[in-house]
Write a structure and sequence with these properties.
The structure is a single chain. The chain is of the alpha+beta class. It is built from two helices and 21 strands. Strands 11, 12, 17, 19, 20 and 21 form a six-stranded antiparallel β-sheet that branches. Strands 14-13-15-16-18 form a five-stranded antiparallel β-sheet, with no helix packed on it. The chain is extended.
Length: about 350
């Protein structure tokens, strides 16, 4: 009992001490503020060269306002409410689609096969249909219901280009970008008419589509013969400076270089690299990567048209190498006849 009384007494003393401290703070605060304001308002300073200067104004700390949360678009809010009201809402949306098929010259392609597939409430969860383009290249799909529509376009004797190889259109969720069908502005699909293919020499060897080239890591050049798929001789030279594989994660730089003295390279991004340029080739392509620089990468992939030999031969080449590879993978097709036609048969 005596022990409990002592504890109670200590608690009371602590409480009284806290109240006294609070009262002192309230009494002292106005005088401290007045003293500070007086000093800031009247005190002058003398600098190192004897000039009297006024003190700099005290800058109040800016109040950081909370960043407002981005507002949710009304269409998304409405979509969420619709989903809550009907969990099957996604798969009940009206699907209408209008498209047009043209060739590389933007001329209509009649008789193209168009395949449709969409998510819906059917027993399998997916429905399919197909049609063909008319004499104006036009086609449509109407009066269906579902969430997302997939469209593929093709025709015998043509290559399917870009979205013709498969395009998706969303009809339910605005967050995924709602597609709005418009019969007056159909979606255009491009096909490329096949030409006369050539007998090409390629990098294909068994199951491998590429020719793997091993190159010393110390910059020693290796000659490459693309026509014969061998090293030690040939019109192209490859060299590189790379770390040993066990140390590549600690490396701070690496480089890769290709050279064709009597021809060269033109970087290309063509979907169908079927016609090589006649001129404009650079004899050397070289890459130097330094860690910390904006162009630092660990994997290097490039596409080129190439020209070599006398008389010249033309081809396309895909380069694939990295800081951790002992060489490079070269995927290519070359027309040995000297023609710039690189379309396969």
């Amino acid at each position: 009992m005596k022990r409990n009384n002592i504890l109670i007494g200590l608690i009371v003393l602590i409480g009284i001490g806290f109240l006294v401290w609070q009262l002192c703070q309230r009494v002292l605060a106005p005088s401290q503020a007045s003293s500070t304001n007086k000093t800031n308002g009247s005190q002058f300073h003398t600098n190192a060269i004897g000039e009297t200067t006024e003190p700099k104004a005290t800058t109040k700390e800016s109040t950081t306002l909370p960043t407002p949360k981005p507002s949710i678009p009304a269409a998304v809010m409405e979509y969420v409410q619709n989903i809550k009201a009907d969990p099957a809402y996604d798969w009940k949306q009206p699907i209408n689609f209008y498209g047009r098929v043209v060739d590389e010259s933007n001329e209509p392609v009649a008789g193209a096969t168009v395949s449709f597939e969409w998510n819906d409430l059917s027993p399998t969860g997916t429905s399919r249909d197909s049609t063909t383009s008319d004499s104006n290249g036009s086609f449509s799909l109407t009066n269906r219901r579902g969430k997302r529509l997939y469209v593929d376009v093709g025709k015998e004797g043509y290559y399917s280009s870009g979205n013709a190889r498969g395009a998706a259109f969303e009809y339910a969720n605005p967050a995924d970008g709602l597609f709005t069908p418009d019969p007056g502005n159909p979606v255009v699909f491009h096909l490329l008419k096949k030409g006369i293919g050539a007998d090409l020499i390629t990098s294909q060897y068994g199951m491998k589509p590429y020719f793997g080239v091993t190159v010393p890591l110390d910059g020693t050049p290796v000659q490459v013969d693309l026509l014969e798929r061998q090293t030690g001789q040939g019109p192209m030279t490859i060299s590189q400076v790379k770390p040993e594989f066990s140390n590549w994660k600690q490396a701070t730089n690496w480089s890769f270089r290709m050279e064709i003295p009597d021809g060269g390279f033109i970087e290309q991004t063509d979907e169908f690299p079927f016609t090589a340029p006649e001129e404009g080739y650079q004899p050397i392509v070289e890459f130097n990567f330094q860690q910390g620089q904006s162009d630092w990468i660990e994997n290097l992939k490039k596409d080129y048209y190439i020209k070599f030999g006398n008389p010249p031969r033309y081809g396309w080449l895909k380069l694939d190498t990295s800081i951790m590879m002992e060489g490079a993978r070269l995927t290519y097709a070359i027309n040995p006849s000297g023609s710039r036609n690189l379309e396969p048969k």
